[in-house]
């Protein structure tokens, strides 16, 4: 089997990441949007679990999800 691998004419698969490294122009913006999303999610869950009015926690979580959707859209726009 080892001999077959050495004599094979098939090439190893190319990795997309190593083929053409592009600079991500939105990297820092995406990073900050992720930070805002994570902080909003933690605060929203904390408010949801601690307050009697759970609507406040749900609203905070939904607003933080907007930041995540924006980040995902920027990731797709490469």
Could you outline the blueprint of secondary structure elements for this entry?
Layout: H1 2-6, H2 16-19, H3 27-50, H4 54-76
Helix pairs in contact: 3-4
What would your notes on this structure say?
This protein has 78 residues and is mostly helical. 72% of the residues lie in helices and 0% in strands. The chain contains 4 helices and no strands. It is elongated and about 70 Å long. It starts with a helix and ends with a helix. The model has no long low-confidence stretch (mean pLDDT 85).
Short description:
This protein is mostly helical. The protein has helices at 2-6, 16-19, 27-50, 54-76.
Q: How far apart lie the N and C ends?
A: 42 Å
**Strand content range:** under 5%
Shape: elongated
Order of helices and strands: HHHH
Mean pLDDT across residues: 85
The tally of strands reads 0
The biggest sheet, with number of strands, parallel, antiparallel or mixed sense and barrel status, is: none
CA-based gyration radius: 22 Å
**Structural classification:** mainly alpha
Low-confidence stretches: none
> What is the helix content?
over 70%
